[in-house]
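Residues determine shape. Take a concrete instance:
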Amino acid sequence: MLRVLIVDDESPARKRLRKLLQPHLDAGRLEIAGEAADGPTALEILATEPVDLLFLDIHMPEMDGFEVLERIPPERHPVIVFTTAYDDYALRAFEANAVDYLLKPISRERLDDALARAERLTPETRQDNDERLSRLLDWVEAQAVPAQPPPDSTPRRFLEQISIPYRDRILIVPVERLVSAEISEGITRLFVLAEDNTGPRTRLRQHVVNYTLEQLETSLDPDAYMRVHRSAIVRLQAIREMIPWFSGRYKLMLEGDHEVIASRERSRLLKERLML
């Protein structure tokens, strides 16, 4: 019996999928482990409940399906079937990497095929499936991060401080306090060391800014900062731990107990930078 988690931000979509799954539930082939309307809730369930099969929507607020996939602890990785409305970008990604997906509105025939494939997976084919998922994330990363221009030998000045809109004023923050810059749903957030860090625990403050990651990447000193993911730049000296993650990736533990997942290629480059 497979334990199933349904993740979709639209209640009617979750209800329809559960209805399509009902004959398999009645037959004892499946058991519903839970439902989630967003990525963070899905990750909470995956951290506490055994899940064999995850139906994962791509387009969700705050954290999309690709980000959820990256954040699942390697030891708790279920079989994943993506669900999506027609989206040329997502479909190209799935088809280029032979990853299973269901196109909304989901048909009973395609759902039955996906369940049959999930049931047939052996430990050996699970490893192959995980590698396809890893290549999928590499593909998404490669599409999202612009190619780097050739190095410029002209001396450059990099940011020494960052201006941050805050309520009715503008904060001027020394760049050394910037722990990471991240983007999600088109919104860029800076995670900055709090100015009044006097207690035993390092605290971060989060600020929304208008800069893009590309602007920040070209403005920050590359000896001090590195783009470790399509959606994140980190200060190298802020890294406290590197935890092995899914298929060659690393979870970076930063100052203030902040976490960032590095892509597979950037994890390799990061290890070279840090001489590990």
Remarks:
- The chain has two domains: 2-144, 161-273.
